[in-house]
Amino acid sequence: MVDLDIQIPAALDPFADAESEAPGAKEYVHIRIQQRNGKKSLTTVQGLKKDFSYEKILKDLKKEFCCNGNVVQDKELGKVIQLQGDQRKKVANFLVQAGLVKKDRIKIHGF
């Protein structure tokens, strides 16, 4: 019998990188839109750090965009900021310019 020194490469695992990161290592800020009745809609912001003052951020957002809003406590998601209207891109730009979140940590959802 002949001995051959051949190394067979291991199968490529596409999820190998995902497993190496700890769960929750990449925390994203999710900006979503919810359709209400007719043309009315809500913009929701979730995933901000817990040590931020949500009330102060909400106050600045309301003043900047001339809209109404509130902070809602959710069992699963924690605190969520709700704003009237479609403010997704404006909120993303505001959070980046204020230095609260990096641009690559924001995910905008919606139509």
Could you walk me through the main structural features you see in this protein, from its secondary elements to its overall organization?
Pfam families: SUI1. Keywords: Protein biosynthesis, Translation regulation. GO terms for molecular function: mRNA binding; translation initiation factor activity. The protein has 111 residues and is an alpha+beta fold. The protein has one domain (28-108): 2-Layer Sandwich (Translation Initiation Factor Eif1). The protein contains three helices and five strands. The chain has helices at 16-20, 54-65, 88-97, and strands spanning 29-35, 41-46, 69-74, 78-84, 106-108. The protein has a five-stranded mixed sheet with strand order 3-4-2-1-5, with helices on one face. Strand 3 (69-74) and strand 4 form a beta hairpin. It is elongated and about 80 Å long. It starts with 15 loop residues before the first helix and ends with a strand. 13% of the residues are buried.
Properties at a glance:
SUI1_euk; SUI1 domain-containing protein; 5 strands; protein biosynthesis; 24% helix; SUI1_dom_sf; 26% strand; alpha+beta; 111 residues; mRNA binding; five-stranded mixed sheet; Translation Initiation Factor Eif1
* Distance between the amino and carboxyl termini: 65 Å
Which parts are unreliable, with pLDDT below 50 for 5 consecutive residues or more?
A: 15-25
CATH C-level = Alpha Beta
The proportion of residues in beta strands is 25-35%
Order of helices and strands: HEEHEEHE
Strand order of the largest sheet: 3-4-2-1-5
Mean pLDDT: 84
Count of discrete structural domains: 1
Shape: elongated
CATH architecture: 2-Layer Sandwich
Helix content: 10-25%
- Most strands sheet: 5 strands, mixed
Number of helices: 3
Structure classification: alpha+beta
> Which topology does CATH recognise?
Translation Initiation Factor Eif1
The fourth-level CATH homologous superfamily is: SUI1-like domain
Function: Probably involved in translation.
Protein name: SUI1 domain-containing protein
GO molecular function: mRNA binding; translation initiation factor activity
Keywords: Protein biosynthesis, Translation regulation
